Amino acid sequence: MKHFLFITFILILMNVSAWGQKAANKADILLDPEWKKIYDAYKPDAELIENLKNKAPELKADVYFAFWCDDSKKHLPVFIKILDTLNVPEFKVNFYEVEKKADAGQKYYVEDMEVEKVPTIIFYANDFEMGRIVENPKNSLLQDMMIIVF
């Protein structure tokens, strides 16, 4: 009985922490013609891509975004193009579409990850968070990625 209650409690916690987000994939994200147009137009810097390829197999990323968000529309297709240009299968990326905040007092889109703005891209190496790009990159998405992972 104790095991049953413990497992039930864990399942409830998992469902609560996932509220407001759902898994997505690159193909579905690029079904939107405006997003696909941004993807097609972006040409990543070949030298930066080559440098990033050496580090990419050690990386993982979680991406929180929303289709209703203009910053997501501007940056997510670019990020996907970077991933596709890198072509490093070991670089695992999880995409999560978030819902709008329920009310003005809600601070986070995803409470347990402290995702306050979208898009938020969280980079990991060896299960350790290396850094985040939140809402808008400081330089360019690719340059900010390089700064975080090197």
What does this structure look like?
This protein has a single domain (21-149), classed as Glutaredoxin (3-Layer(aba) Sandwich), CATH 3.40.30. 43% of the residues lie in helices and 21% in strands. It has helices at residues 2-17, 26-29, 33-41, 46-55, 70-86, 141-149, and strands at 21-24, 59-65, 92-98, 120-125, 128-134. It has a five-stranded mixed beta sheet with strand order 1-3-2-4-5. Strand 4 (120-125) and strand 5 (128-134) form a beta hairpin. The longest helix has 17 residues, at 70-86. The model is unreliable at 4-19 (pLDDT under 50).
Q: What is the CATH top level name?
A: Alpha Beta
Largest sheet: 5 strands, mixed
Distance between the termini: 49 Å
Count of extended strands: 5
Number of domains: 1
Q: TL;DR of this structure?
A:
This protein is globular.
Give the secondary structure arrangement, pairings included.
Blueprint: H1 2-17, E1 21-24, H2 26-29, H3 33-41, H4 46-55, E2 59-65, H5 70-86, E3 92-98, E4 120-125, E5 128-134, H6 141-149
Parallel strand pairs: 2-3
Antiparallel strand pairs: 1-3, 2-4, 4-5
Protein traits:
alpha+beta, Glutaredoxin, 6 helices, 5-stranded mixed beta sheet, 150 residues
